[in-house]
Design goal:
252 residues, alpha+beta, Arc Repressor Mutant, subunit A, 3 domains, three-stranded antiparallel beta sheet, 12 helices, 54% helix
Length: 252
């Protein structure tokens, strides 16, 4: 075991180099078996806990650069300005122009959100309303919720008009069905980039979003990535995803 080190500078240097770390890694670094020792040193440095991976990763405030949604990621580990997944989901739903369906919020936060959303509904911190057979998650405030529902209904009407517009341009039902089928076979990054490509050709994020069942922000992100050539060709799924190797499934 490493000798006990009580200086928080050791943690700072390690996290500056590695960006993120788990609690066992930091305990080994400090040469301690006590969780509280690590948290005391982290508190001196102002730290953040990931909302993905069940909060297993830590980083420093000085390392994080949040985007416009208050999110930051490194190596498929996600952090939020609001801390926990529950708090982040509450903020996103409360401030959404047209609320969120669960699948839309998962596209944005990159983690499953069904359980946090149900927890927030049970606590009265957000509300939900059935629209077109799906639950739309909205703000707890009645006036805000009404505005979100009206905005969602307007989006639905625009989507129907956009679909009619696609038909007016000569795209057949068969071709539209083929586009939807092809997109369903892609992984998350490929689907986003494909939607962005179609948007560039069609000139409308909203139309493609409605056609593929995506959030318009997802389509816009894919379009921006293509134009900026910011595509991660090496990793298409989160670390640890995919089929397990045969030797792990059937050890000898």
């Amino acid at each position: 075991m490493r000798p006990t080190v009580f200086s928080p500078d050791v943690l700072r240097q390690f996290l500056r180099k590695n960006r993120i770390a788990t609690l066992p890694q930091l305990k080994q670094l400090l040469g301690t078996q006590a969780d509280i020792t690590v948290f005391r040193k982290l508190k001196e440095l102002a730290y953040r806990t990931s909302y993905s991976h069940r909060g297993a990763f830590y980083t420093l405030d000085e390392i994080v650069t949040f985007d416009e949604l208050g999110l930051w990621s490194f190596d498929s580990v996600w952090f939020s300005r609001h801390g926990t997944l529950v708090a982040t989901a509450e903020d996103r739903v409360t401030h959404a122009v047209a609320g969120y369906f669960a699948a839309e919020l998962e596209e944005i936060l990159h983690v499953p959100v069904k359980e946090p959303l149900l927890q927030l509904v049970g606590q009265g911190r957000i509300a939900r309303q059935l629209i077109s057979g799906l639950y739309l998650y909205c703000a707890a405030d009645a006036r805000t919720r009404q505005r979100q529902v009206l905005a969602r209904q307007a989006q639905h009407d625009q989507g129907a008009a956009a679909s009619d517009g696609l038909m007016a341009t000569g795209i057949s039902n068969e071709l539209r069905a083929a586009i939807v089928l092809f997109a369903s076979l892609l992984d998350e990054q490929q689907r986003r980039l494909y939607a962005g490509l179609e948007s560039l050709q069609l000139g409308s994020d909203r139309q493609i979003a409605e056609l593929l069942g995506l959030d318009p922000h997802t389509v816009a992100k894919g379009r921006r990535q293509l134009l900026a050539q910011e595509v991660n060709a090496e990793r298409v799924r989160a670390e640890g995803g995919g089929r397990k190797p045969l030797e792990k499934k059937h050890p000898r």
